[in-house]
Amino acid sequence: MSQHKETIKHDFEPNIVAFVCNWCTYTGADLAGTSRLKYEPNVRIIRLPCTGRIDYNLLLKAFESGADGVLVSGCHPNDCHYNLGNFHARRRFTVFRQLLDFVGIDIRRIQFAWVSAAEGAKWAQLVTQVTNEVRELGPFTNYKRISELSFPYKELEPEPLEEVTA
Amino acid sequence: METLQNIAQGLLERGDVSMVIGYTPGTIPGKTKTIFARTPEAAQKLTFNENCVNNLSIYLTRQYGNIGEKPVALVVKACDARTVNVLIQENQLKREQVYLIAVPCNGVKDEHGVEQGKCKSCAQRVPKDYDALAGETPAPVEIDPTLRFKALEQFDAMSPDERWEFWMKEFEKCVKCYACRQACPLCYCERCITDKTTPRWIEPDTSTAANLSWHITRAFHLAGRCIGCGECERACHQNIPLGLLNRKMAKEVFDNFGYRAGESAEAKPVFADFRYDDKEEFIR
């Protein structure tokens, strides 16, 4: 029987949401699985047709819903199944991450990569790297902080009960 | 030299255009309002002065239904003409549907006499492309091009957390009246993404988190399109510096792709286009 490696316990396990394209990165992640490559289990993969389809709203929603990090990955340039999708995505994300930076979201939490269907090893390495980086940054609390400020999400502190003396 | 009124009167008398959209003195000193002149007599009410801050190109969008069989004449400053260019680029109207009456502009002021931020860095006195010029061609001016993005420099020194605090303080004030959207000549979508409910991309409440989604969306939908007329900022009664977001987007688009919105009506919109050698140092 092979010996299992001792797992390291961390204080904080980040939630990473990965938006990947169906044709390259998803297949690449599949290859990582079939090749029995080990990588961090913190990533949740969402499969979309193309990086060109990845609306910036999806990335925002991920952060809003409590993701600590977001990963966007698709075909290398010139390999797009739809020919041009990733070129358009590249332009959009160049500007979009600058907008996030401008409003004060740490852009180390949003990573972009090209992973082809043959790069299972790159995917495993990428996820491990991104997870470790986000783990070092700690939990993403920006949204929690503003929720405390705002009216609809404000949770009132329960009033302390009066002590009943016998 | 032809005056604005004479040009407009001639156009309406000959029946070349269905109406002339321009400025007329307002009821409050230092303010002007829009006039839709349909008769030669009404054309005499047209005026242009340093208080003509409004960007009238919004009246060319479909929601107003001003464009019919005949072209519409529009009084434009250099910045307004850039908006018209974007509208033409995005197939909202055809160049022949609009008759541009250019007015030489030396910068405009609001009713308090404060010069608009956009004018401080503007060296363009007349539009590049127009059909008639009311007045004389002014002498060209030299303005330092770095002035355009000077307001953004204060943010370079700030940490992401400081920037976050700055913007959240601003967005907290937002009441989601959507005046910024209604005033914008390029927010012409008949159904805005924020009004859609399946799926609901932007929460409709006015919590800071929901306001953040709205302002990110607004800024990004205008990225590479906004020409910086500043109508959103002027319309905002909570004085949120929306222009800064738009300007940041313009800077990124210019730095990365060398594109400036509204420079030409023939150019492809920046996000409908790409180059094989676009920068990608942020991609792993």
Brief descriptors of the model:
heterodimer; A: about 170 residues; alpha/beta; Rossmann fold; 4-stranded parallel beta sheet; 5 helices; 4 strands; B: about 280 residues; 5-stranded mixed beta sheet; 9 helices; 5 strands; about 30% helix
Secondary structure layout plus pairing:
The complex is a heterodimer of chains A (166) and B (284).
Chain A (H helix, E strand, L loop, with lengths): L15 E6 L3 H10 L8 E6 L7 H9 L4 E6 L10 H19 L6 E5 L5 H18 L4 H8 L17
Parallel strand pairs in A: 1-2, 1-3, 3-4
Helix pairs in contact in A: 1-4
Chain B lengths: L3 H11 L4 E7 L6 E6 L34 E5 L1 H12 L8 E5 L14 H4 L11 E2 L19 H4 L3 H13 L6 H5 L24 H14 L9 H5 L6 H16 L27
Parallel strand pairs in B: 1-3, 3-4, 4-5
Antiparallel strand pairs in B: 1-2
Helix pairs in contact in B: 7-9
> Multimeric state of these chains?
heterodimer
- Determine the number of helices of chain B (DSSP H or I, runs of at least 4 residues): 9
Counting helices, strands and paired strands, the structural category of chain A is alpha/beta
For the biggest sheet of chain A, the summary is: 4 strands, parallel
Indicate the percent of residues in helices of chain B. 25-40%
Side-by-side strand order of the widest sheet of chain A: 2-1-3-4
- Ranges of chain B with pLDDT <50 over ≥5 residues? none
Q: If classified by CATH, what would the architecture of chain A be?
A: 3-Layer(aba) Sandwich
The fold-level CATH name of chain A is Rossmann fold
